[in-house]
Amino acid sequence: MNLDKKISMAVIRRLPRYYRYLSDLLKLGITRISSKELSSRMGITASQIRQDLNCFGGFGQQGYGYNVEYLYKEIGNILGVNEAFKIIIIGAGNMGQALANYTNFEKRGFKLIGIFDINPNLIGKKIRDVEIMHLDSLDRFVAENQVDIAILCVPYENTPAVADKVARLGVKGLWNFSPMDLKLPYDVIIENVHLSDSLMVLGYRLNEMRKSQRNKS
Amino acid sequence: MNLDKKISMAVIRRLPRYYRYLSDLLKLGITRISSKELSSRMGITASQIRQDLNCFGGFGQQGYGYNVEYLYKEIGNILGVNEAFKIIIIGAGNMGQALANYTNFEKRGFKLIGIFDINPNLIGKKIRDVEIMHLDSLDRFVAENQVDIAILCVPYENTPAVADKVARLGVKGLWNFSPMDLKLPYDVIIENVHLSDSLMVLGYRLNEMRKSQRNKS
DNA sequence: TAGATTGTTAATCGATTAACAATC
DNA sequence: TAGATTGTTAATCGATTAACAATC
Asked: Which structural domain, as residue segments, surrounds residue A151?
């Protein structure tokens, strides 16, 4: 168990995936699983699974494998599903409202406590009991409430300014939906969701497949 | 110029990022750029930039660097921004509607031609001139129109069945928004957008930062 | 021409996979 | 106990970085 050693992002990004598969196994009523069996389900090597898990501790047992429920809970703890991170959404356009309606996030340890916009037609409206407030009241809100993460769903051109403002107010996690790489001079964790990047990669791969099929025939 | 050689996914996933930075440079009126200068803007090594670009051809000139407009267009072509991929959205809930309103996709070579749902209250409604149709008419629609990509925004439990149906109809690209790894026995390109995975990684990193700050003091 | 910067090969680094002793 | 499977070290593979000759 290589505890306190620096864990690579490659490993970290696989954790939510393990968590999902373990959740599925639980639902199927499977109580124990070997790295070999999980390997064939997930399409990665058993060796990688054992390596990954051992970054965080020895969760298995020789000759037995892993207890599904135990491993599920442990990975949940590592990912902080019981932390109840307080999140706010900035920008209540289509994407902001869509995310506000995602009840899944709650299950994974994220609690929406505020939504902000500048459109007067939206102010006062509620989404799942959370009020849409004017962006002008953000300062006071952040001062009065602990806000762990801000979800940025504002138009492209406003994103840098809003990100800067939020970071200055002391919010330490930003989830950015604009197609740009935010850089801030503060100690803030930024996670980008570049939807158009993903779609463009899909387009590229589609073309490549078609090309290779044409060459075959 | 290592043409026709297999290009790694690591390189491919960086292409849209290059494309974004070149677009920014164009807007700034910068006409030429060296790998060194681009390197400092993007925060990756100049060596990596030259390696990446040379997978697709020699776009630069010794002693000069790269012509921004030329490189922008070339990468655009590689990514297929002029292909006008025909896309449909399945599931016109919050996320489906949010994506339907994304005009950005059009600029990057994706044309929305249909939206499908099963909710009778939504059928007939239009989003940006695109009609929401009943899922029952999907078969005929795909038969009568070329559909390159289907965006899946349906509830978790319906996703596998809908994905299977769409793939059977001959759609070769799937953009999946459900938190599951789709596997299909057909030659279909699947690109997953696992929003909750991304958010959980953000939560993990936030916790790690806080831990390390606590240890310092 | 001299200076700059690419394209490309070689070296390094990190991540994945294989192997196996430890042990349940 | 014997069989199974982990935890962990060692080997391999692939991706990134460094170096430099080619050349604009």
From this structure: 85-197
